């Protein structure tokens, strides 16, 4: 009766957990929620004021499909200054969040049955987005000893004559791993040789605990032509609800993305765009303060997890997640289908702590904890995990 495309689409795991947490909270049960990938900081004042001003100035009519020109100019300046990337105005399309920027890009690129490589573990929405846009997700296993970063060899093995694109998430959600320049060059050159488009999801790029970040598109002219840089303001400026993301890519593709967007949604909300432009222009200090907050929590989390022998964590060099290997307790846990879901259910029911099961990201031996939360909650959350581990050790 309905489209075949939706027959094998799963509901979002993370949204499902948030809904369960809300229900429990509404019934009076106090849950410590470290499951969501949303900054606990507030949208910077300057950005909020710019939106209020836009309303008073009646910036409330249709605008360009690719997004507000001044905002696109601010994005161009940001990409040049921070990412060593040169784009013209007609290479930028502002969308309703990075999710929408990715979806527009997939619609623009994919023919039915085209394959899109998704390194595991992956951000939950990629596979469903690929399926919804008519493509076929091809999952590639990566190794824990490489912090789950894709290698050239793993990539080569997964390429077929149907491969059209690949997702590279840098920094990664769920692992927080960050690729070095050398690692990216190896992968990106293979993509260029095989005419594979790179969806470079760099939404966490400003939340970084190492010195250097390399934008894939900055690596060479050829790589630039095959790369669609995806970014947005949800994470870096705590603007999740404003729904602002963007693509930066070659002109012919940007024109198609803009035209798709024009037909589907016209453009993102003009008032949101006014706030987004201001966030890029004048909120660098707010982002810096948020990073200071994340850094403290990250360091605390690393210290505490290092004391729990049964848990190994992936070195979090960016983003605000801890991806923890709990496979050492697997033999002590009774579960039917999924080990990580079982552990998350016990943590939620008995320890009132919400985390995300690794199976949501394609790895059932892991759990993801977000530290985009008050530092006391991060500490309490890890204490509860440690207590749970004590109960299963016995
Ligand atoms: C890797 C990654 N890409 C994209 C997004 C979507 O961001 P937005 O809120 O801008 O749609 C998220 C949000 O969790 C994410 O983790």
From TrEMBL:
**Which InterPro entries does the entry link to?**
Aminotransferase_I/II_large, AspAT/PAT-like, NHTrfase_class1_PyrdxlP-BS, PyrdxlP-dep_Trfase, PyrdxlP-dep_Trfase_major, PyrdxlP-dep_Trfase_small
Annotated Gene3D superfamilies: Aspartate Aminotransferase, domain 1, Type I PLP-dependent aspartate aminotransferase-like (Major domain)
Does Transcription appear among the keywords?
no
The broad enzyme category this protein falls into is transferase
Name any cofactors this protein relies on. pyridoxal 5'-phosphate
Q: Which Pfam families match?
A: Aminotran_1_2 (PF00155)
Entry's Gene Ontology molecular function annotations: pyridoxal phosphate binding; transaminase activity
List UniProt keywords, sorted A-Z.
Aminotransferase, Pyridoxal phosphate, Transferase
Ranges of residues in domain Aminotransferase class I/classII large: 30-385
Biological process terms in GO annotation: amino acid metabolic process
E.C. numbers: 2.6.1.-
Tell whether Transferase is among the UniProt keywords.
yes
- Family of this protein: Belongs to the class-I pyridoxal-phosphate-dependent aminotransferase family.
Q: What is this protein called?
A: Aminotransferase
Its ancestry begins with: Bacteria, Bacillati, Bacillota, Clostridia, Helicovermis
